[in-house]
Write a structure and sequence with these properties.
The complex is a heterodimer of chains A (134) and B (134). Chain A is α+β, with helices and mostly antiparallel strands and 134 residues long. Chain A has two helices and four strands. Classes of the chains: A alpha+beta (134), B mainly alpha (134).
Amino acid sequence: MSLFNIFNISGSGMTAQAQRLNVVASNLANAESTTGPDGKPYRAKQVIFQTTTFEGQPGQGVRVSSVAEDNSPMKMVYDPKHPMADSKGYVTLPNVNPVDEMVNMISASRSYQNNVDVMNTSKSLLLKTLTIGQ
Amino acid sequence: MASRIDNMYQFHQAALNLRAARQELIASNIANADTPNYKAKDIDFQAALQGAMASGGNRLQLSATSGGHLDNGSDPHLYGTEVLYRTVVQPSADGNTVDMDVERAQFADNALRYEASVKFISEKTKDVLLALQG
């Protein structure tokens, strides 16, 4: 039944977008983290989306294939009083760009809402189908 | 008499099946709106419905019980209809061709037409009941 498959597809979309939102939250929360568990400053992370197929159905879902680290240069700030400053007085801050993250967040939220709408429409169509013959 | 009733429903049954399959394709387009290199898909509904009616409304699937069995290549919901790719209006840098405006509009349109088919079937059922009960 095709309409039931939509729940799988939209569900996978919602999971993927929620994961993206999760990564955005982590990036924004760690925008000033000068040390992580490995002693190095935090690096911005990005999710990578990939299509995924469900057995026996033509539609494709989406999944997060991996979480990649952003390789752009870290932010260097001159602050000799900072405890993490190097010998030249520079502090290495994470390469998180708050503007990029906010844009990413809005995009993830809109895509999530689209998937919710698709799911609601499919649900109401299924309920209408159940009323055939009544 | 049973076959007369069967014939009466055949067209709307095929239409409903195709609408549900198309709904699934559009749902996967919406779920994959942010997946790099994903190409938006759709079917030519008119051609698909004509093909479905020409093949008698129902195409039986051969069951594959061994790995050596050949797949007859037809999707039970799509009646062997070819899945086409959408023409790109505004290409994006990541190779994704999903245009959310088009997809949302087509999704709403398809949902409404699905409901119309459900309504037609319900009304036909009421007609049959009326004829039976007098």
